[in-house]
Structure formats: C-alpha cells, structure tokens
Amino acid sequence: MISYASNFEDVILQRALSDVSNGCYVDVGASNPVADSNTFAFYQEGWRGICVEPQDIKAEWDQARPRDIFINAALGEKPGELIMHGYKDAGQIATGSTEIVEHWRASGLVPDTRRAVPIRTLDSILLEHLDSQTIHLISIDVEGMEREVLLGLNLKRFRPWVLIVEATVPGTNVPFHHKWEAMILDAGYLMVYFDGANRFYLSNEQRNLLDRFSLPPNVWDNFVRLREIEGQKRCAELEAKIERLTDELNACRRSRPS
C-alpha cells in the first residue's frame, strides 16, 4: 500500500479495517486531499465519506476526490461563526483557537490571514448525510480545537468503529488529550494506540479488532510512503536528463573537426 499520512496513521488504520470493503469515513480538519491525509488511501480503495475543512480549498477537493462530500466549515458545540487564522508559510494549517494562536506566536509563527467561517456541529452533518449508514472511521485533526468538535458529537448515537484524534499541542509532543479524552472513554471507547501525535480509540462493539493495534506500522504492513515514490520518480527523471545531456555532449564532441 501507499501511505499518504504524515505519521503512518493510514497504515495502522488500514490494517485495523482491512476486512471492510467500500467503507465510510469522516475526516475532520481534512486539509489537503492527498498529501498528509489520513483518509486518501481509503478513498483509493473505494471508500467514501465526508471531509470537513474550514479553509477555502473546495476546488482542490473537487478535483482530487470528487466522490467525497466536502464541507467548508469549522465544527463546534453549537452553530455560529468563528475567525480562522491561516499560516501560508507553514503548510495548510489553520486554527480558530486563540490559545494555539498565542502558542504559535510565542514560537515566532504569526498568522497571515483571518477569515470568518461558519460553525456547524458534527452531529448535524452526520444526521444530514450519514444518519442510517455505518461509520467505520472518524479522524479529527483540528489544531487544538478537538474538544469543541467532540462537544458537538453524540457518540452514543453515532458509533464509529475507530476514532483517531490528534492528542498533542500542535507542532509539539506535549500531551493535550486530558482536555477531552473522558468524553470518548465515557461513551464506550477504549484507547488502543498512541503514535506520538494521535490517540486511537476503538468502540466496545469492535473489540475483536483490538489485536490489530498491538504493533506500530512495520515491514509486515507492506507499505511505501508517497514521498519515497515521488523521490524515486524525481531521481529517474534526473537520471534520464543526465543521460540525454551526456549523449548530446558526446555527439557534440564527435562532430568537432579533429
């Protein structure tokens, strides 16, 4: 398999959910549709779902993943409006958390843009699009706003098999899960894996999958990173260019009068 995620999240998720065909995911804080995506590998395998992202990148999603439902909004406990702070020089990151804005500012990272976006609850989106459908995976990566997202999600009604949530202060290894983890555990989920950035939770109904989280991504998962493939492609292009230039140089030398 090809791993597109930044920390091999999709490797362990595909291992855990390998028995599911044409499954359903919800990607919250989806950002780029391909690079560093926890769900693009599933999309490639025929899965479909809902991707929620407050940044104005719908055109990119429509081109790369036309069969997904893209929702341009932030998520919270109740509907409203939120000011999102964007950072053009730090990839496609954005946050509506004033705490995280100040944390990054102290590290020298200043927002480039401010944009008002609508707030929806995750419950309202699931009710509208997936009310009667099994949800196999929910991924939440929202730069410090995980608690707000979870406050708008009724895990007693919607029972994703697996829930993965970014669990450290963005850009650091400082734990952040103490602010929201109890909501997940109290809803009947078990914390089964931590990869240094994300915590993975398994619903009580799917405890038969517990062993699949016992090891980190490894050689037996038979995967290669997208960046490796892109690097190999670039090397092949450069080798072909060198060969062509060498042939041209040799031809030029042969054509000179002796």
What is the strand tally? 13
CATH class call of the largest domain: Alpha Beta
Largest sheet: spatial strand order: 4-3-2-9-10-12-11
Write the H/E string, N to C: EHEHEHEEEEHEHEHEHEEEH
Based on CA inertia axes, which overall geometry fits? Answer: globular
CATH level 4 superfamily of the largest domain: Vaccinia Virus protein VP39
Backbone CA Rg: 22 Å
Secondary structure category: alpha/beta
Low-confidence stretches: none
Mean pLDDT score, rounded? Answer: 92
Which bin fits the share of residues in helices? 25-40%
The CATH topology label of the largest domain is: Rossmann fold
Strand content: 15-25%
Helices, by number, come to: 8
CATH architecture of the largest domain: 3-Layer(aba) Sandwich
Largest β-sheet summary? 7 strands, mixed
Chain-wise SSE layout:
Blueprint: E1 2-3, H1 9-16, E2 24-28, H2 40-44, E3 48-52, H3 58-64, E4 69-71, E5 74-75, E6 80-87, E7 93-95, H4 98-106, E8 113-120, H5 122-129, E9 137-140, H6 146-151, E10 162-166, H7 181-185, E11 189-194, E12 198-203, E13 224-225, H8 226-255
Structure description:
It contains 8 helices and 13 strands. The protein is α/β, with parallel strands linked by helices and 258 residues long. It has 2 domains: 2-221, Rossmann fold; 224-255. It has a 7-stranded mixed β-sheet with strand order 4-3-2-9-10-12-11, covered by helices on one side. The longest helix has 30 residues, at 226-255.
Give the structure's gist in a few sentences:
By secondary structure, the protein is α/β, with parallel strands linked by helices. It is 30% helix and 23% strand. 34% of the residues are buried.
